[in-house]
Design brief:
Chain lengths: 341, 341
């Protein structure tokens, strides 16, 4: 989009007034970018036809910096919610989109974010159907916060429920962990590594859909370890269902460079945020087929079976370490990396 | 809710980490307050059964101050979205709820907001089914921003569409305008009036539902003039449909005290925000019955027929003033009152 003819270079309070300037911002940037029959009604809301079960998920994105290696807050806001809907066993279809912009934000940056949202939404197969734009005074926000709420139709074969989890079930992840968190961290600290660490921000809905097509109710759980990382999600799982989790450190996909960066900064990759990783718990009988399907997909080529469900130590996540010992993966207390998503 | 045993008095960055502190905040305040079968799944999203057409609307609330005469940001976040769904001709059923909290917010204030949300949701007949909580550093937010996204089933008799609007249709509002904006303004400026001006923040869904039950597709439009006020919404209507609007100033419900406050501050009540007002465009044949139904309801007791649709001056809103002259109601440019919702 050319921003030269917009007539404004920064977002100001008037763009959040609900009056002419708001309409100007919407018409010239938002409606123009996302135009579709739902949004074009320009009503207070949108009307969609749904039949059956629907998954709904919401997330606000407050990441800083808003542009980072491998992505920006716009695409993250799409991927994050698309993935949360997919984790319910649903096929994402619609997103709402709400901005809180800090007065003085450059329109060039705003447009870049909006265009990223459009691209990520197209790639994920979702439509932006309704939205909202607010502007707060300088110093009362931080450039831009984005909320997306996602809606998807449940996959007909999905029967996702932690209640179905039993001893011996296999735990898999689709790829390298801790990439997103370390990309943001290196950006913030201005760290240079041998090669650039990029965020893994991506949409996981197609791979999840393929898994459900193929394996249906033998898949017991999908969960994406974003904030809090893999360790926190596994710990929650163990406690929600009162089962134990056995992990093998050697099998957890972790890039050397990310491992080195974590060590340097004193961070445990088990608690570092991901934006393109999911874990799944599946019946042991299909684990190798699930692994093969995942490895055959660009979003799962580094997939691995990382552990099993056990009843030997309920509520505990136990990791067999690289050097052979065992340690308990405790829950994350406090904050490892603020504003990571 | 007693906040003495929570173990924390302020919200800190750890409450947004996704780890133990986040779980603590959710379990002790959020899940405890809103407990219902959807939310209790504690999954990434919620699964609901829908059949047919559904209206979806999203809004972020950034109002300051967060507590004001007649309401607070919590109930506003419920009413605002419930009303937007109702304006589509739908019956609101579910809300998502996402917080962006500034580090250092008092837990006592947070709990007060959460409890208001619960009360307003109960009164409006909607369930909070999924949510999100983020925390930003001190100085990067302003106490609390709230996003709600609402879902409602379309009323079976609704056929809301600006395309159905024709010459002679009557325009009604349900009550006094400009109350919300002037309540916030007097709060900010520390102004004292003879009696307190209170926000009109309330849910309009039951009255809208009753109107649809009774008059079905003879109702052509509902719209709530929040940001930008009645003038902006009427101006948008005129331009979206290429019709003219004739208004009679004498018929527009405006409390004396609010009128005086507007005059004192140099504000035009036509552009001041409302949070409990809606306008409706109806077939001329039913206008008196519609008025009677509205006046019979606590949310519409000050309802009035304020004007008509005309083809004489398309795209223009023309007001017959109190002293008999006519003036054009131009669109609001810029910002009259920032952060009013």
């Amino acid at each position: 989009m050319s921003i030269e003819n917009l007539g404004f270079e920064t977002i100001n309070l008037g763009h959040g007034s609900g009056g002419e300037l708001t309409r100007d911002l919407l018409d010239k940037i938002i409606f123009k970018t996302f135009s579709n029959p739902y949004l074009d009604q320009k009503h207070d809301g949108s009307i969609v036809q749904i039949d059956g079960k629907m998954a709904i998920s919401t997330d606000s994105f407050v990441i800083t910096p808003i542009f980072f290696k491998g992505g920006n807050i716009g695409e993250l806001a799409v991927h994050g919610t698309v993935n949360d809907v997919a984790m319910c066993g649903a096929i994402p279809k619609y997103l709402s989109l709400a901005f809180i912009v800090e007065e003085g934000m450059q329109v060039s940056e705003f447009v870049k974010v909006v265009e990223s949202i459009k691209k990520a939404a197209d790639e994920s197969g979702v439509l932006i159907i309704t939205g909202d734009t607010k502007v707060v005074e300088r110093g009362k926000g931080d450039k831009i916060f984005i909320n997306t709420t996602g809606f998807g139709a449940m996959h007909p074969k999905a029967n996702i429920s932690v209640q179905n989890i039993k001893e011996g079930d296999a735990i898999l992840v689709n790829g390298f962990i801790a990439q997103h968190g370390m990309a943001i961290m290196s950006e913030r600290e201005g760290l240079e590594f041998e090669s650039t660490i990029e965020s893994d921000s991506t949409n996981l809905n197609y791979l999840v859909n393929d898994l459900l097509d193929e394996f249906g109710d033998k898949i017991k759980l999908f969960r994406d370890p974003t904030r809090g990382g893999l360790g926190t999600v596994l710990h929650e799982l163990a406690n929600d269902v009162s089962v134990g989790v056995d992990l093998r450190e050697i099998d957890i996909p972790l890039e050397k460079q990310v491992a080195a960066a974590c060590e340097m900064l004193g961070l445990d990759p088990m608690y570092v945020a991901n934006e393109g990783v999911f874990l799944t718990v599946v019946d042991a009988s299909i684990k190798d087929e699930v692994l093969a399907l995942m490895q055959n997909d660009t979003k799962g080529k580094n997939a691995a079976i990382i552990g099993e469900i056990t009843l030997e130590h309920p509520n505990k996540v136990v990791m067999q370490s690289l050097i052979g010992g065992k340690r308990i993966v405790s829950p994350l207390v406090g904050e490892q990396l603020p504003r990571i998503c």
